[in-house]
Hints:
alpha+beta; four-stranded antiparallel β-sheet; 10 strands; 27% helix; elongated
Amino acid sequence: MPELPEVEALTDFLTEHLAGRLVVRVLPVAVSVLKTYDPPPGALDGARVTAVRRHGKFLDVETDGGLHLVVHLARAGWLQWRDRLPDGPPRPGKGPLALRVALETGEGFDLTEAGTQKRLAVYVVRDPAEVPGIARLGPDPLAEDFTEDRFAALLQGERRQLKGALRDQSLIAGVGNAYSDEILHAARMSPFKLAASLTPEETHRLYGALRGTLGEAAERARGVAAGRLKAEKKGGLRVHGRAGEPCPVCGDTIREVSFSDSSLQYCPTCQTGGKPLADRRLSRLLK
């Protein structure tokens, strides 16, 4: 799933390629992709793009008519830029194409989604706050006003495990499964540690890992073309998706805990005092 650093890079990429351009047509191909119907996608035809912004993991394409095309790529969605779109309208079918945006220049982009779950979401709205996922977003962890004191206040009384708390978009915007693993590894903390149990020193360490991990990943992704962002993300991960490989810090074997629809990876030596976590959903918490 694209997370904050990749969506930030896509925002920069689309700002460069879309700003000032005229939208000729927005063509939904998969019925499941469109989450709003008023205004219809056709209301964007003839609009000029004025800005591209990011809200957590959401992309927001703003136009001069006051309408916004908002996209959430979900787990298996992606954006493919095309210097030249194919002639003729796309045909609905079983392929990955979900929506196409065509520009007056002949350029444009496709939104695609692999797999069968179909969670890619597109909204046409007058205000991004009309999108439920944006309306409930927590603060952006790379914003200037996201201070350590603000972070500590968010964690006060938070009885969830750190892994779940970091991934909660209403608590902190933009962190998903991969970067939560990376942040906790950098902070040397168990993913099952309770957020409310952190000492001031641990909160300081986790705050630094959060800002540092996301900031470094965003910097690595900056300037990378949309088609290469997935590979850039994977290449920069130290523990996520690397079960069975040696930890780049201590050399211990990276372990995995699997759940019904996801998994986490961690280093026992760096994060859990050398103790492996039970590989089941109801694992005991490690302090």
